[in-house]
Protein 1
Amino acid sequence: MGCSWFSRRGGGPSEVDDGGIASIQNVKIYKYKEIRQATDDFNPHNKIGEGGFGSVYKGHLKDGKIAAIKVLSAESRQGVKEFLTEINVISEIQHENLVKLYGCCVEGNHRILIYNYLENNSLDKTLLAGGYTRSGIQFDWRTRAKICIGVAKGLAFLHEEVRPHIIHRDIKASNILLDRDLSPKISDFGLARLMPPNMTHVSTRVAGTIGYLAPEYAVRGQLTRKADIYSFGVLLMEIVSARSNKNTRLPTEYQYLLERAWELYERNELVDLVDAGLNGVFDAEEACRYLKIGLLCTQDSPKLRPTMSTVVKLLTGEKDIDTRKITRPGLISDFMDLKVRGPVVETKPDDEVNRNNYTNPSSYNASSSSGTRDNSNVYSSGASSAAAVSSFSSTI
Ligand SMILES: Nc1ncnc2c1ncn2[C@@H]1O[C@H](COP(=O)(O)OP(=O)(O)OP(=O)(O)O)[C@@H](O)[C@H]1O
Ligand SMILES: [Mg+2]
């Protein structure tokens, strides 16, 4: 076999001075040779995607498992020890709504993650890419409700049961994978920990992700679990409406899902946002409840967003929504090309976010139809938090 299990208790390999591998308890270490064989030497035919961290290949491992093999890009090369420490943390986190990490490969400069392969791809490539017509998957209302609840449970687990808790930082449709039974699995949790500190905040990767970013995180680098909850809210509305948070093919006033949802909510017409592809076969009360939960999660003030365990209860109907409490969503959708670099401040606990430093929403929601944005338009003069070196530019 090209791989081995290392155990602190087991003796053998764990006693060898191997640059950090000895400290690893539960991670399966794969040989680069096996990964090459599994992917037919990283044959482009086996490539199933490419994200901000690197390329993903489908591979057949020697033990018969099918894997998704994520080859991390050069920038994400940590030292062996640091890398394995983080991998060890990630591999211990297991839940039915989280993608399972089989192991990793850390030979030479290579940093590769080996995950359970999910047969039914990601939500962005199925439901949001045309649903049944394109993917052959029937996303009926019950399936969607199951997906929403599963994702909420996975995130609640990361936020509230894992110690220390994990903020995902990149909840979005491409990070929700579907297994054979269309049960959702959140992928890429803990990945931000594998990036060097200067890369972990919003970077050029944000281009495809911006619609999911909580304003306080995108603009000010304030990272709390509430930023994930905001992203979850956007995702929830995408699942119910089967449309992406931004769709430039629609007339201007319909392009931004959150804006549209708020408008319809105010007019008491939220049901219009539900995917027409369901052909009216859905529980309208439940679908509107889901959209309202999406609005609750995306409220401008992080403090007003519910925790993920509350979201689970709201989705399952165990708890009622107090609709009087929904306030306008925070929007940064008009930053078309946002680049922020600088250390992230993980603000803990959530309630301690310094709201005096919080910029008036209207200033980061300013019109941006031309030219380069001056940072002073974005930051309040008192801004002192994370995104120390930042630049905003608009390409529209
Ligand atoms: N475990 C997996 N099983 C099946 N397909 C996967 C798996 N992991 C990733 N993929 C596929 O690879 C694609 C790219 O994934 P990747 O995580 O690299 O990029 P992304 O999710 O689009 O962006 P990001 O880097 O921000 O997460 C996914 O959209 C999905 O189609
Ligand atoms: Mg991903």
Note: Confidence is low (pLDDT under 50) at residues 1-17, 334-343, 349-396.
Protein 2
Amino acid sequence: MHEAGLMAEAMNKAETLAMQCNADAVAGLTLRVGVLSGVALQALQFAFDAMKPGTVFEQAELRLEQVLPRLSCRDCGMEYAAQERGQRCPVCKGSNTSLLQGGELELAKLELIVREDRTS
Ligand SMILES: [Zn+2]
């Protein structure tokens, strides 16, 4: 399962950040998921629920934000919303494009629980 590996990677990264902030637990985790990333949201959620028991994510809520594709044209510099990779530029009709967003899976937001009574 592709998504389980990606979810584990995101959770590792989030856990490292949480440790760096001396957090006790994670309250919420937001991931940006590009619609062209080939990642199924239900599978991510399933992987998260399966892996979180006994971890800092035990109480955490997973939020998945879908990111619509945007392309940029290397010929004329136009940036535009697209439905798929390689969709032609609406201005110059060129096909020399690159994907700006919509293919990513990244950590967008992390809400941490930090206990305040830990001074000693
Ligand atoms: Zn163009």
Note: DSSP finds two helices and six strands in the chain.
